[in-house]
Amino acid sequence: MHDNKIYYISEEEAKKKIKELKQREDIYSVVLDGSKIKNWDDYIRIITKEFRFPTFEKRNFAGYTDYFTDLMWIDKDAFALFILNYDKFMKDDIITKEFIMNR
Question: Which residues of the chain have pLDDT under 50?
Answer without folding.
Answer: 1
